[in-house]
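With this grant's support, we have paired protein sequences with backbone structure tokens. One protein thus recorded is set out beneath this paragraph:

_____
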Amino acid sequence: MQTTTLTEKQQYWLEHIEAIDKFDGTLKQYAEDHSLVLQDIYSWKSQLRQKGMIEAAPQSSKNNKVKFAKVQSAQPLGSTSFQFRLGNMSISSNTFPDPIWLATFVKEIGFGQ
């Protein structure tokens, strides 16, 4: 990374981008929490990367995308309990959730993109 004098606006966005890297939530949540436009974050991140102010994203990021996996039942058929795991998050229930709720939940936490 190069050492460059930043404009006030560049410093503002650089601070946000650094904070986003430490944020324990989705980019969409961060943008909403800080009244930022999601597209502006993407744009400034790209501009600052091109100017050498932030490190380039790893080239292997395409391989890190969430992919569909084969579903295997860990319990005998007829069981009424439900457990959903995504990364280090787990949800358990005595009944299967509404499919629309589940799809909305996955989309809102950022894994549906």
About this structure: The longest helix spans residues 8-22. The chain has a mean pLDDT of 77. The longest strand covers residues 82-86.
